[in-house]
Amino acid sequence: xxxxxxxxxxxxxxxxxxxxxxxxxxxxxxxxxxxxxxxxxxxxxxxxxxxxxxxxxxxxxxxxxxxxxxxxxxxxxxxxxxxxxxxxxxxxxxxxxxxxxxxxxxxxxxxxxxxxxxxxxxxxxxxxxxxxxxxxxxxxxxxxxxxxxxxxxxxxxxxxxxxxxxxxxxxxxxxxxxxxxxxxxxxxxxxxxxxxxxxxxxxxxxxxxxxxxxxxxxxxxxxxxxxxxxxxxxxxxxxxxxxxxxxxxxxxxxxxxxxxxxxxxxxxxxxxxxxxxxxxxxxxxxxxxxxxxxxxxxx
Length: 299
Fold this sequence. Notes:
2 domains, globular, nine-stranded mixed sheet, 11 helices, 21% strand, Endonuclease, Chain A, alpha+beta, Arc Repressor Mutant, subunit A
């Protein structure tokens, strides 16, 4: 069995290992696809729930299908009421291998996490991205940022608040954010320079908008905080904070932009907050968001 750093050194995506709520589900899902008589099958959450002893929640299904798509063993087939209810064409044997790898990875991640976690969830935990060339074992004591952001998004029930100056049109980031509105979660994004920013930002915001089913687009609100000094022409103020808040329950504050480099290769460091500080962060976000200029999508 592979342990510790070897998992973090690899290019594996941990969406399934971190996002599916019960390790037994990973085993059941692996066995389901192993037992398929056809090479490719179309599945959705309802079909899987009819075939499994345990039940996939919406969050479980979103993690599963996102991970299979990112592993290139599944493609979206039909849309549903929410992303968790979409159907996908899945390659059975490769999917079974992916799920077995994710099952082992989950065990390794839980083993590494157990070494450093206290018996109760602390009010603040470190989360980070590291350059893949840095392999010291101490890094396994810090939560992986990209997985934590996905877990934050997938775990939200009613409202996600995001402040970030820079976005990439990364399919996984765009898909994660678009899936929020598609499953009924209101989404507020505070950014900057939407009138003159790089094509990456405009493309990312438009891709999020286009990834949301038309009846759900009213749940996405975007605002722009950026102003130049009228006399000098220099920047007077702008969005520079990097924040993500789910339901006023958990809050990420850190250095990472929502870009490929920040979420995979840079040294980025932040904290996951719970408790009273999240309420304060929520109030601060809402105050600044209400002050900022409304952005009409698509740009």
